[in-house]
């Protein structure tokens, strides 16, 4: 378990990271989402010790992270970097050895990873002769070669074609399923949405929201429902506490007023069942005739993102 | 994944120590550099250069002169020299041999009665001084403080040492700076810094390139006697052996001193194109021994000063020792000064390197690099 605790860092006047705390749990893929310049990369660099924090600590297994501990981390920086003239396999093996591996083990892992990433045939080509997408795969191999105990990946999917994204996804999932905590940032919210178990949303250097993806959806998504009946559903707009969003004959999409009692601080909580306004609407509908479909509309990550940022 | 090492967790205290990281970095630099064609081309040129310098003087104009002799008196006089003598029928035939270049000079009987030794010497374009002096009678000379080596040999040694130091310092210094910039420019430096201590990166580069240079100098030092034997220059060989004794330790320390500075020069910029501006100062420090020693090699005061300045000491002190001008303790003092400067320089370089390595953009100012330590 990686714990980031109250980490702050300024560059001159700019407070790039402000009192940031979050966890990356074993076996969980944690998405790190935020606008450009919101502090994602700075936070990751602090975890990796590339930058020093002005205050706050980073703990790994409840102990402060040291250089020795950090060598077991795998890192893929946002600004990719490899030796252009070095052969792909040789380069990955070299980085494995820098992480403390024996030569033979490093070479074995490098070959296996390049194979897994579909680069076996290019293993002996200098990196500069590979396409950008293939260089990206080598970069991922470089982060994984030493079988890291923690993975920190800054924008691992940018520059990859859809096929490569699937390959990389499966490699990362494989690591996570073996109990490795994975923290990855991305601006491709749809990818994060599919991939992550947990989510940390950062805005202007501070954590705007964090928690499991489903929890966040419940917490931050507007309490939106869709109702399909046989006749015109226009009557819904007259139910107290309902704001009609879309009406299309028998289909109505509406939000439930958050301030209306009863319910918790976030209004009606569909999955939690705390609020019963949604039930009131359903009963009203059933009194008028058959209900063909009724349920919460799950907000997408980008909607949550807009909500909290 | 075929490996089964994944069960290890990051909390285990595995990992590379400072020295094993340094060794890995040094190893990579050496492998990467020896794979370039430029390295072998450069080294090949050095080898060719040494053999050329040893052998060519014999082929062009050097060697034993051939002299045409006319008459028994001339032949008798020439018999005491080691010149190659070719008898000629008369003065005209001898003149013709000189004109065609078949002989370097001719010795003919003097018919005017002006010559005290009874013969005249015929040359082509210039006076054949070696023939003239061989036939002359010189008074004996007593030197009060005989110089151990003559001026020509002294200049040649100064020039050769300065040349070797200059070529290797610039060539491989620049390679160090480029290697640092490449890591910054490609941003692989971020992975490296996250993995091993910055000091190990710096130490690995300096050690890697130093070993590469020392190995080359060692090979050249072994080839030099062979080249000199091939060129029949045994005399040069004997004094070179003496001179090399001090040149080696000075060269090693001097190179490492400059290497630490080249590394910093590389770390200050983010692109190969900007290297020129940041390496200018180091370049000047390399130029000092080169031009200083060549220009002032007969000026005792300047040479004494140069032999203590850490940047010129690697060339100036061995030349002074070789010329017999330095007291026995002097090279030790100069070596100590060099060593102290070296430690200070490496300590400063470590801080500047750490402070500038992760800064991108335009050239990092030294003051900023100094105060910026992560």
Automatic annotation (TrEMBL), chain A:
GO terms for biological process: response to antibiotic. Keywords: Antibiotic resistance, ATP-binding, Nucleotide-binding, Transport. It is a peripheral membrane protein. InterPro entries: AAA+_ATPase, ABC_transporter-like_ATP-bd, ABC_transporter-like_CS, ABC_transporter_ATP-binding, P-loop_NTPase. It is found in: Cell membrane. GO terms for cellular component: plasma membrane. Residues 2-229 form the ABC transporter domain. The keyword Transcription regulation does not apply. Belongs to the ABC transporter superfamily. PANTHER family: ABC TRANSPORTER ATP-BINDING PROTEIN (PTHR42711), ABC TRANSPORTER ATP-BINDING PROTEIN NATA (PTHR42711:SF5). This is ATP-binding cassette domain-containing protein.
Automatic annotation (TrEMBL), chain B:
It is found in: Membrane. Keywords: Membrane, Transmembrane, Transmembrane helix. The keyword Transmembrane applies. Residues 45-349 form the ABC-2 type transporter transmembrane domain. The keyword Transmembrane applies. One of its GO terms (molecular function) is ABC-type transporter activity. This is ABC transporter permease. It comes from Phytoactinopolyspora halotolerans.
